[in-house]
Amino acid sequence: MSAVPYCGPAPLPDGLWSDWNLDPVVLAALALAFVFVLAQADRSARWAGIGAVLLLAVAFVSPLCALASALFSARVAHHLVIVAGAAPLVACLLVRRSVAPRGAEAAFVVHTVLLWLWHTPGPYGFALSGTPAYWLMETTLTVSAVWFWHALLSPRAALGTTMALALGAIVQMGMLGALLTFAGRPLFAEHATTTAPFGLTALEDQQLAGLLMWVPAALPYLAVALHRLFALLGGAVRGDARP
Question: pLDDT tens digits for 33-43?
Fold first, then answer.
């Protein structure tokens, strides 16, 4: 691959833990976000925002950023930190600020399309071709994930809508994970020669990425669905117990 990805060339294991991304623009953006979060009056919103900033720092500043240049599985882990970790925390902040969600079904469709698009060979290769393309991938994934999680976590959403959105997210991530896991050959030329120092073939790395997308990625969506369902059942029981 001739182009150098945003986080730099694929690192070797020995130097990985010293390979931090100290891009001043990223550091400044995270610092401004942290100051904004600390200014929140609502304690729960403040903690959600702090968690989101820390997870974004893990994704874009820590050695995970560099490792994603070597391993497709690290790239998937990087994206899961964003879309299944930081994004729901940002959505919690918006919910706490009483920002009304809009277009739940559209949010699901847009986020699903973008998630699949950026994990297919052509668009993925384009995203690693330069800094603007990289940030196009990361920004669209992040914004669409926040939009989707905002609709999913809103207390104004009907239980049926929440359950359908959560189930849809679990199914589509499972399908993408299964396709990556059971593909008979490596699909991403960008990682054809970068996985060996980490003891993986390109196909094994891709299979690991698929398993991450298939199983751990589904857990936050499942947790939200079960929480809403148990809250409803608990409310119904308390209602029945009243004289």
Answer: 999 999 988 89
Q: Which among 209, 179, 175 has a CA at the least distance from the CA of 191? A: 209
Which has the closest alpha carbon to 152: 114, 111, 117, 116? 111
Closest to 169 measured CA to CA, from 83, 230, 239, 237: 83
Type of residue at 196: A
pLDDT of residue 189: 95
> Which residues have CB under 8 Å from 140's CB, separation 6+?
114, 118
DSSP type of residue 6: T
DSSP string, 180-223: HHH-SS---GGGTTTSGGGT--HHHHHHHHHHHHHTGGGHHHHH
